Amino acid sequence: MSAPFDHGPFDTGRFDTGPFDTGLAAAQEALVRAMTAGGPVPGGFDAEAVRAAVHGILLKRAGEVALAWPALAASYGTSWRTEFAGWAAGRPTLGSFRDGWDFARAHRDDLAGEAGRELAVAEARWRHAGAAPPRPRRAAVRRVPGGVAIQVGGRIRVFGRRPPH
Amino acid sequence: MALPEPGVGIGWRPEIAGFVGALPGLRFTEVIAESVHPGHPAPGLLELRDRGVAVVPHGVRLSLGGAEPVAAERVAHLAACAGALDAPLVSEHVAFVRAGGIEAGHLLPVPRTRAALDALTANIRRTQAELPVPLAVEPIAALFDWPDAEYTEGDFLTELLERTGALLLLDVANVYANARNRGEDPAALLDRLPLERVAYCHVAGGAEEGGRYHDTHAAPVPSEVLDLIGELCGRHRPPGFLLERDGRYPPAGELQAELDAIAAASGLPPVT
Q1: A3, A30, B108, B266: which sits with the fewest CB atoms below 10 Å from its CB?
Q2: B249-260 burial code (b ≥16 CB/10 A, e <16)
Q3: Cα–Cα distances in Å, from B119 out to A20, A22, B64, B137?
């Protein structure tokens, strides 16, 4: 699994640019809230077209999460995109690594085999930090289905009855 | 023109890196800028760069169309990508991707208003000031428009390019998708744009769902988009056409055939 390099929403530095158009900013925020966080579609928009765009975005997010979390997505088979889209509706993206991680945490009890192992390995490597980007752990031990994952200094080994691959 | 004779290219993605690297006639490619670590780009990209292939960093998260100023570290990243890859130019979108601290997860359209034009102009100028190379901006595909437009799409883009001096990255598939979903003639927009400012073009496939055409980049290029390449080249042939594929990667033979079809439609030399 690759590191969550593209963590997106955690910008800090800004150009010193002075005031910006707060009316345009508010209009854009209202649209983004409507499309990601369950807010009302602002007046004047074709609400049906906006909803179609939202659906397309959710399916695209599902595809991106499947790249970051291949075993998780594979464990849902052909229903992955529908399952993920249903969960992600109303939840703005935190980047595909975090989206997949949060989906996996919400479905932890349903995950078996490789999907459970993928989650355990991620959690041995990264510390979930709420709204902040994930932080690497220096060392950790996590149960995986049929064994245990041990991470020290970024290197992971999985011990157990089931071979890693 | 910033990109001399780029010809037909294809977007570099990790999943098809082997295919892209093996194309004998390839002279340009593009990489998603946010996927590049400027300190250590993927070896496949460096091989292409060292072969003289133009590698264009293509940003997707800068949010040039946001009311809020672009983030300094995102601009710095784009500039660092250009340096690391010896890029002749970089590209981004006429779009916004976040507002009020919330990520849209996608490129969203801006209103065609004076206020949005001012915000775009300011953000493009801020970005250009930090970049070592020219910037090309790409109009997006969108399933909906903002209400109360003050400009036509052609006038809005033309004024933006005049104000900023930016180049145009014209996505032929986006022109097709927007016109199809609005019930308009795609060739009509071509007559309203400054085609001499086109740095290169994108080409991609999409799929119809629920009566709307979605520009997914995960399907074959439809024949209508190839026809539109011909319409465009009949007016003014841009120097390059780049195939974007971002999922459901087909066998190499199908990608080769698509690249050959783009070459045939544009009259540029095949690269396969």
Answers
A1: A3
A2: ebeeeebbebbe
A3: 8, 11, 8, 14
Q: Which of A8, A17, A45 sits opposite B144 (nearest CB)?
A: A45
Question: How far apart are the C-alpha atoms of A77 and A27, rounded to whole Å?
Answer: 39
- CB-count exposure of residue B247 (10 Å: 0-12, 13-18, 19+): middle
Q: In chain A, which residues have their Cβ closer than 8 Å to the Cβ of B207?
A: none
Is the pLDDT at A9 greater than 80? The verdict is no
A13–B contact, CB cutoff 8 A: yes
d(CA A55, CA A35): 9
The answer, as to whether pTM is greater than 0.90, is no
Percent of chain B with pLDDT over 90: 96
Rounded Cα distance between B173 and B167, Å, is 18
Copy the structure tokens of residue A64.
């991106």
Does this complex have an ipTM over 0.85? Answer: yes
Residue range B92-126, pLDDT digits in tens: 999 999 999 999 989 999 999 999 999 999 999 99
Contact A45 B96 (CB under 8 A): no
Given an 8 Å threshold on Cβ–Cβ distance, is B34 in contact with A14?
Answer: no
**Do B65 and B75 meet the contact criterion of CB atoms below 8 Å apart?**
no
Distance from CA of B85 to the nearest CA of A (A): 19
DSSP β-ladder status, B135-139 and B90-94: parallel
Length of chain B counted residue by residue? 272
- A17 has a chain B CB within 8 A of its CB: yes
Identity of the residue in B98, B210, B212 whose CB atom sits nearest the CB atom of A9: B98
Q: What is the DSSP string of A53-79?
A: HHHHHHHHHHHHHHHHSHHHHHHTGGG
Are the C-beta atoms of residues B64 and B95 closer than 8 Å to each other? yes
CA distances from B161 to B48, B58, B61, B168, B196 (A): 30, 18, 20, 7, 11
Of B98, B119, B247, the CB nearest to A21: B119
The answer to whether B100 contacts A25, with C-beta atoms less than 8 Å apart, is yes
DSSP string computed for B18-46: HHHHT-TT--EEEEEGGG--TTS--HHHH
- Residue B196, classified by CB atoms within 10 Å of its CB into exposed (0-12), middle (13-18) or buried (19+), is exposed
Residue B191 identity: D
Angle at which helix A47-68 crosses helix A96-106, to 10 degrees, equals 90
